[in-house]
Amino acid sequence: MPRRDDIKKILIIGSGPIVIGQACEFDYSGTQACKVLAEEGYEVILVNSNPATIMTDPSMATRTYVEPITASVVERIIERERPDALLPNMGGQTGLNCAVELAEAGVLEKYGVEMIGCDLEAIRKGEDRKLFAEAMERIGLDVARSGYAYSVADAEELADELGFPLVLRPSFTLGGAGGGIAYGMDELRDIVREGLELSPAGEVLVEESIIGWKEYEMEVMRDAAGNGIIVCSIENFDAMGVHTGDSITVAPAQTLTDVEYQRMRDASLAILEEIGVACGGSNVQFAVNPRDGRLIVIEMNPRVSRSSALASKATGFPIAKMAAKLAVGYTLDEIVNDITKATPACFEPSIDYVVVKIPRFAFEKFAGSDATLSTRMKAVGEVMAIGSTFDEALGKALRSLENGRSGLGRDGHDEFDDTHFKSLVSTPTEHRIYYMAEALRRGMSTEELASLSLVDPWFIDRLADMVAVEEMFDGMLLADVDARLMRRGKRHGLSDVQIAQLTGSDERSVRARRKELGVIGVFKTVDTCAGEFASQTNYYYKTYGDESEIRPCDKPKAMIIGAGPNRIGQGIEFDYCCVQASYALEALGYETIMVNCNPETVSTDYDTSDRLYFEPITYEDVMDIIDAEAPDGVVVTLGGQTPLKLAAALADEGVHIMGTQPSAIDLAEDRDRFSALLDELGIPYPVAGVAESLDEARAVAARIGYPLLVRPSYVLGGRGMVIAYDEQYLKRYMAQAARVTPDHPVYLDSFLESATECDVDALCDGEDVYIGAILEHIEEAGIHSGDSACCTPPFSFSDAVLATLVDYTRRLALAVQTRGLVNIQFAVKDGKVYVIEVNPRASRTVPFVSKATGVPLAQYAVRIMAGERIADFGLPVRHEDMGYYACKEAVMPFGRFPGAETMLGPEMKSTGEVMGIARDFPSAYAKTQLAIDYSLPTSGKVFISVCDREKRNIVPIAHALQDLGFSIVSTGGTGRLLRANGLDVEITRKMQEARPNIGDMIANGEISLLVNIPFGQETRGDSYHLRSAAVRHGICYVTTLAGANALAQAISAVRDGRLAPVALQDL
User: Fold this and answer.
1) Is the separation of the CB atoms in 326 and 221 below 8 Å?
2) Are the C-beta atoms of residues 529 and 343 closer than 8 Å to each other?
3) Average pLDDT, the chain
4) pLDDT at residue 1020, rounded to an integer
5) d(Cα 1015, Cα 1024) in Å, to the nearest integer?
6) Contact criterion met (CB below 8 Å) for 35 and 323
7) CA distances from 633 to 591, 657, 766 (A)
8) What H or E segment, with its residue span, contains residue 573?
9) pLDDT one-digit tens code per residue, 232-279
10) Closest Cα partner for 244 from 41, 492, 428, 434?
11) Cβ atoms 762, 771 nearer than 8 A
C-alpha cells in the first residue's frame, strides 16, 4: 500500500515523566516515531511533559508542547494545531489512556482527527481484561481462571471460589501498580482495597495463581494487509510471580522446543488478528506450566511496550520506527531493513547470539519498604548485554549494573546471610542470583535449587557452568593461567576483576596477562539476520571468537561514554546530553562512537551515532573498545558519575580526555583543596569539616554547631546524605555514611536553615563563561536539588544577589579549569551567597535549561571540547526578563514502596521530572503539578499540621487556602493557632489517637489536600503515618512551607484558567 498523502499533520502523545513501570523506553519509541514521520514529510505535533528526554528537543518535531498529558490540555492543542491524525501507541499507558479519553469524549470526531496505527475498539479489547478473556475464548486460547472485584466483599467471594494464592491486578494501572499476590484473606483485603483506589475503573482482577510457571513474551508486528512477524521471543529467568519488568530476561527464548515456539508464534499472530490490531507493534505475554505444558495467555499490549525497546536493541529491528511507517500506510514488504539495506522488514529477525536484561533497583533509597519482588514492578532501570552464550551475556550484564559487583560473585564483594540462606535463595530479590550461585558453590544440586527458586533447571545448569569455571581459576597464580583457560573464563562471563580476585592479583595485571596470551575480545555485528546478509550498520558487541568485524574509518573519531542504567540520581537527562554530543560531533566531522549498556535510551539506537558498542561501562570493557577503535578523543563529562569514575584510569592509559580534565573533577570533589580555592577567591561557603570516625565527627560538631549536613564523598544523588540536628542523629548517620562509601571520608557542613538554594548551569572555554540559566529552588535548603522544584528565571532574588551569582560562577568555572559544562549549587541566606558545591560536568538540569532558554548547552559544550570558543557561537545574551517562567518539578515513586518514608531530604528519591511553561510563576508551577497528578484539588477539605517552629508561617497560607474555598481541618495544636488567627477550623484527632481520627477522614475520602510540615527527618511518628496514608489513598500532599505556598498559588492559577499551552518553538 502506498504512503498516505491525505494526512499532513500527525499528533503524537508521549509518556510523560519517568516513573517506575514506564521509563524512557517510550521516549526511545516516541523519538523514533517523530524522526521517521518527519523524514516522510509529515508535520509532527508532540505533547509530552518530560523535559529530560531528547524526544522533547525542539528539533524532533514541528511543534513541541511540554505540557501536562491530560485530555483537556491535549484538546486545546488539537484545537490550535488541527492535526489530521493521532498516533496513540507510542506513549505507553499514559499516551494510550489519554487517546482513549479523547476518543470517548468525542474530541477526535469534533476536530476530524483520525486515530492511526491502532483503533479504539482494539485498544478496549486489549486493555479491558473481561473483553480480552472473551476474545481468547473465541479463538480457543486459555487464560487464567479469574473474576472481577468491585469491592473487598467481591474479592472475598472470588477467593472462596478460586482458592489461594491469588494474583490481584487492578485494571488500567501502570507496571502492576496496586497489585500483588495474596496468600491469605487479610493480605487479599489489603491489596484489593489499595487496588480499587488506584484503578481508574475501580475494579481489580482476581486471578488463579500461576506462580512458578515459566513466562515468555513475544514482540509482534502486523501490517494493514494482514502480514505478521515475530520480531523477538523473550524468556523470563524468574518464574511467574515476579513482574516481567523486575525479572532477568533472555532473548531469544532458551528453553522452548521448536514445537512450543511455533505454538506461541501462531497464537501471537492469531491474538493480534482477533483483537483487531490494524498495524504496528504489540507485545503478547504467555505462561507455560512446566509440569504439563499447559499454555495460557497472560495479556497483550496493543501498543509499543516496555519490552519493545529491549527487542529492538536485541535484534537491531526498530519496532517503533516500523510501527510509525505502518501507521501511515506502508506494509512490511515495502519497508527496507535499516541494518542490511537489502532485506524487507517482513523478514523475521534471526540472531546468533544471546541477550540478557537485568533490572536495576534502588531499595536503599526507601528504608522500610519491602524488597521482595512480586507482580508490582519496582525496578528503576535496566541493563542489557550481548554475548555468544548465555553465560557470557549474563556475566557482562551483571557487571553493567553499577551496584558495586563485577560479576556473579567471587569479586571481592560477596556477603551472605547464613542464618537465612535458604530463604534468600527461594525469595525473589535483587540479590537472589548471587545467592543461587553461592548455593551451587556450597554443593546444592540443580534439582534442589530449581525446587527452591522455581527457576528452570537449564538456567541453573548454566550458573553451575560459570561456577565450575571460577573454580578452575581459584588459587592459581596469574602467571600459571594459560591462553586456553583464560579464553574459557572470558567465554563464561568472568570479568578481569573476578579473575584477579581468584588469582590473588589485580585487574590491570589480568588485563596485561590476557593481552600477553593473545586473549583479546573481538567485536561482532548485530545484523538481524544471523550473518545471512551483510550488515551496513556499525552496531557491535564484544565476544571471544576468531575475527573482529569492525570497519576501518579514515575520519577523526570521538567516543562518548554513556550513563549506564537509569537509577535515582542519574537518569535520562544524561542520555540527552550524550545524544546531543553525538549530533554535534558528527556535524563537526567526527566519526562518533557511543558506548552504553542501557536498552531504554536513544543513545543506544543504532542510528544515533556512527558506531554503537553495547557494552558494560567498566575499565575492562571500555579499554577493550579503545584498543580496537583508537579514538582521537573521549567524552566523559556528559554521562553523569558513570564515565567520570573511569576518567582518571583512562587518562593514565594515555587516552585523550576531551574537555574538562580529571584533575579538575578531583579538585571539585576534594574538600580540603576546594575549600582552599574558595578561600583564595574570597568566596563564602558553609563552615565545614571532614571526619573518618564518630569521634572526629563529634569534634567537628563541637566546632561548627548543629544542625549539620552529613554526606559521604563521591556519591550520586545525595546517597546517604542527611541533616543531623543533635548528637543522636549524628551517631546514627555517621554509621550510615560510612557504609555508603567506606573508603572515603564523610563531609560535615554547617546546614544553612531557611536558606534558598539555586543551581547555575554554565559553559566555560577557559577564557569566557556563558551563564545558561539560574534556577531558583522552590523548597527551602535541605531538599536535594533533584527532588526540589525549581524555576527560571528566579522570581525572588534581588539584582545584587543575581550579580553575585553570576560573578561567583564566572570565577569558579575559570578557577577549576572547566572546558565544557559546569553546574554550581549555591545557597542564599539573608542576602549573602554561599557556594555549596561545584560540578565541572553536565548536570541533570541541562535538558530543562536548554528547553527553557532555547540554547542547547550540551551541543555547545562538545564544540568547546573540540576546540571552539564561546565568543564564536553568537549565543543570545541571557537576561532575567524572558517574558515567561519555566518550572521543573520532581516525580516521586512512593506509591511503589509502601512503608517507605515520604519526607523529602538531602538524599534524592525522585525517578523523573516534568516541566511547565507559562507567563507567570504560579501558572508554570500549576502545570507541573497537573503533569504529575493530572488534576489539582480546587475545593474540599485541607488538613493542616505543622511543627511548632512553622506555626506562625503557616497562617497566611491557611488564609489563602480558605479564601480559595477550602475547609480547614487540623489537630489540636495547629488548630488552636489557626482559630486564634481568625480561621474556621474543624478539629480532629491525630492518627495514633482514639478513633474517629484524621486517618479515618483520609480513608473515607473526606480530605482532598494534606499539608504536613514536621521538624527534621522523623522516622515513625504521627507525621509518617499521615504521609503514608496520603500516598496510599492518592491524596495530594506537601511537606514544606514553600511547597504549600507555591501549591496555593498554583490552585488559584488553575481556577482562574490561566494555563494556555505553549510550544517550545514559540519561545
Assistant:
1) yes
2) yes
3) 92
4) 46
5) 11
6) no
7) 11, 6, 18
8) helix 572-587
9) 999 999 999 999 999 999 999 999 999 999 999 999 999 999 998 888
10) 428
11) yes
SS3 320: helix
- Comparing 81-85, 147-151, 705-709, 994-998, which segment has the lowest mean pLDDT? 705-709
Grid coordinates 548454566 are at which residue?
Answer: 462
- What gap in Å lies between CA 916 and CA 931, rounded to an integer? 8
Q: Give, in order, the Cα–Cα distances in Å from 285 to each of 161, 218, 235.
A: 25, 6, 10
Instruction: Please name every residue paired with 821 in a beta bridge, in sequence order, or none if there are none.
Output: 763
* Residue located via cell numbers 544524561: 574
Decide: 338 and 132 in contact? Cβ < 8 Å. Answer: no
pLDDT at 1017: 55
Residue 770 main-chain phi, psi, to 5 deg: -115, 120
Residue with cell 475464548: 137
Q: How many helices (H) and strands (E) does the chain have?
A: 35, 38
Q: What is the mean pLDDT of residues 169-195?
A: 84
Q: Cβ(748)–Cβ(690) under 8 Å?
A: yes
Complete edge-to-edge strand list for the sheet that includes strand 381-387: 295-301, 280-288, 214-222, 228-236, 249-251, 354-360, 381-387
pLDDT of residue 223 exceeding 50: yes
- Give dist(CA 383, CA 493) in Å, integer: 15
Give me 216's grid cell: 515468555
Give the tens place of pLDDT for each residue, 164-174.
999 898 876 76
Instruction: Report whether 376 contacts 176 (CB < 8 A).
Output: yes
Helices 120-127 and 258-275 meet at what angle, rounded to 10? Answer: 130
Residue 952 CB coordination number (10 Å)? 11
Helix (H) or strand (E) holding 709, with range, is strand 708-712
- Which grid coordinates belong to 724? 543531623
Per residue in 652-673, pLDDT (tens digit) is 999 999 999 999 989 988 878 9
Residues 919, 1058: Cα–Cα separation, whole Å: 9
Residue 377, classed as helix, strand or coil, is coil
Answer yes or no: are the C-beta atoms of 810 and 769 closer than 8 Å. yes
Find out whether 87 and 324 touch, Cβ atoms under 8 Å.
yes
Partnered with residue 940 across adjacent β-strands are 966
Short-list 486, 420, 424, 412, CA closest to 453 = 424
Among candidates 410, 407, 381, which has minimal Cα distance to 396?
407
pTM of the model: 0.93
- Tell me the residue type at 673: R
The strand pair at 832-839 and 820-829 is best described as antiparallel
- Taking only Cα atoms into account, the Rg of the chain, rounded to an integer number of angstroms, comes to 28
Cell of residue 241, nine digits: 510471580
DSSP string, 941-996: EEEEEE-GGGHHHHHHHHHHHHHTTEEEEE-HHHHHHHHHTT--EEE---TTSSSS
Nearest Cα neighbor of 395 from 474, 489, 314 is 489
Instruction: Count the alpha carbons within 13 Å of 255 in the hemisphere toward its beta carbon.
Output: 24
- Spatial CB neighbours of 701, under 8 Å, sequence gap ≥ 6: 708, 724, 727, 730, 748
The answer to whether the beta carbons of residues 464 and 489 sit under 8 Å apart is no
What is the rounded CA–CA span in Å between residue 1015 and residue 298?
A: 47
877: DSSP letter? P
